[in-house]
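User: Please fill in residues for this 223-position structure.
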């Protein structure tokens, strides 16, 4: 084999091993959020705050905020900074979308306009923070877009459970945001898989199956 071919072959192997190790090391951060003095533990955003020296390209796929049955759906949408959101109208009436600011900065207020069923309008969110969505036609409608700095985020289900998938090992700041409760901050450590855990159903001895480490973090939020 020529030196050039050997170099290419080695590079391919190195890239493959690097990709495999980064995949096998990523784990999930999951837990339950207990809400005190607020109506429900649902729709609480749990996310990993900015990681120094790391930037994340926004997804090519657009996120979706629908207006359906006179509600913003989902009520809370969390996105990575730079994500484009498609605003839909699924109702047989006109809806409007506007926000009076982002993180209370009124200079970032924006009115998307008013449009009928079937029309889609898009907006790219390049500012971090909470975007309170309102409709000028129906004052009772409200929703939120929360723009966060990493792709490691989740929204709690109606029981307060959340799962953030594929988090690489490291130490992070885990934050919460809720419509009603005060934000919280907590330092967490996601450990690398040791590879020694035996996977259920594995017949190999010793077991070298890639295990998916789970870091459990339970949180409490208060009004
Ligand atoms: Cu409306």
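Assistant: Residues filled in for all 223 positions:
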């Amino acid at each position: 084999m020529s030196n050039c071919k050997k170099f290419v072959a080695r590079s391919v192997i190195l890239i493959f091993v690097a990709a495999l190790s980064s995949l096998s090391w990523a784990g999930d951060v999951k837990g339950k959020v207990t809400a005190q003095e607020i109506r429900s533990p649902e729709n609480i955003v749990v996310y990993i705050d900015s990681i120094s020296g790391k930037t994340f390209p926004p997804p090519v796929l657009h996120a979706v905020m629908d207006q359906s049955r006179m509600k913003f759906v989902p009520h809370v949408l969390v996105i990575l900074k730079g994500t484009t959101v498609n605003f839909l109208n699924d109702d047989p009436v006109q809806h409007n979308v506007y926000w009076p600011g982002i993180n209370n900065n009124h200079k970032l207020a924006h009115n998307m306009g008013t449009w009928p069923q079937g029309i889609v309008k898009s907006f790219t969110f390049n500012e971090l923070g909470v975007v309170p969505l309102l409709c000028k036609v129906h004052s009772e409608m409200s929703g939120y877009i929360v723009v966060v700095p990493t792709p490691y985020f989740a929204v709690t289900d109606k029981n307060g459970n959340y799962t953030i998938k594929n988090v690489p090992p490291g130490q992070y700041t885990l934050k919460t945001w809720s419509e009603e409760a005060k934000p919280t901050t907590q330092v967490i450590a996601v450990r690398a898989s040791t590879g020694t855990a035996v996977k259920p159903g594995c017949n190999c001895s010793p077991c070298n199956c890639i295990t998916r480490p789970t870091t459990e973090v339970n949180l409490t939020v208060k009004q």
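For context: The longest strand covers residues 27-36.
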